[in-house]
Write a structure and sequence with these properties.
alpha/beta; eight-stranded parallel beta sheet; 246 residues
Length: 246
């Protein structure tokens, strides 16, 4: 059985004054038996979040693929580990779009994270135009082929399916769409990683809220969620965690 995993992605939001939310989520997570919970704040809040998290895993929203060097403004996986991070999101659609990240770069970042023992959450997802054209599964499969690391490393690999058109829009993929895509992702993982592919958790992301989480978590290959806006407060995030308990 794969344990459910619920990860909060704060994106470019948050301040020291909001770290009480991390503490509140940590307290609730202790009561959510059988569910893994984590928060990924901005880089500047990682160390402070770790100090307030009471053991709740804290992650990052990106990392550089190199160990060190002349990469102004970037942060390596090793630096994240030293700051106390235990996981890192790579290949989020906002970075693919705004920073023009390629599948190959996402793969290199995931490999760097795994080398340092971090959980690498690799994001994939199609645009609305691609879905309307009937290409959604083909696009996501291509992203998986190019973005997933070939080597396991010492960390854990997680895949997050986030339809781009559902991120922050209030739209959520239909149950049929989610079931189809997660089944296709699982098939790719099994084909390319064998038994290990059956152990990789697949998260859904895209306007996940308390009122739709239970429906999403009911599908066999939905192993949790990558939550954006609703993760900024414990009041909105904790009910999603509770829904994962089933």
């Amino acid at each position: 059985m794969r344990r459910k995993l619920v990860v909060g992605n704060w994106k470019m939001n948050g301040s020291l004054a909001q770290l009480g939310e991390v503490a509140a989520v940590a307290a609730a997570a202790k009561e959510a038996a059988g569910v893994d919970v984590a928060i990924c704040p901005p880089f500047t809040l990682i160390a402070s979040s770790v100090a307030r998290s009471a053991g709740l895993p804290i992650g990052a929203q990106d990392c550089h693929h190199a160990e060190s060097g002349a990469h102004t403004g970037n942060v390596s996986a090793g630096m994240l580990k030293e700051a106390g991070a235990r996981l890192v999101i790579v290949g989020h659609s906002e970075r693919r779009a705004e920073q023009h990240e390629s599948d190959a770069l996402v793969r290199a970042k995931a490999e760097a994270a795994l080398r340092h023992g971090l959980t690498a959450i690799v994001c994939v997802g199609e645009s609305e135009a691609q879905r309307e054209a009937g290409d959604a599964v083909a696009i996501v499969t291509r992203q998986l082929r190019g973005s997933l690391p070939a080597e396991a490393g010492e960390g854990e690999l997680v895949v997050a399916y986030e339809p781009i058109w559902a991120i922050g829009t209030g739209k959520t993929a239909t149950p049929a769409d989610v079931a189809e895509m997660h089944k296709a992702i699982r098939g790719h993982l099994l084909e390319n990683f064998g038994d290990r592919g059956g152990r990789v958790r697949i998260l859904y992301g895209g306007s996940v809220k308390a009122d739709n989480a239970a429906i999403l978590f009911a599908f066999d290959d939905v192993d949790g969620a990558l939550v954006g806006g609703a993760s900024l407060t414990a009041a909105q995030f904790v009910p999603i965690v509770e829904a994962a308990r089933g």
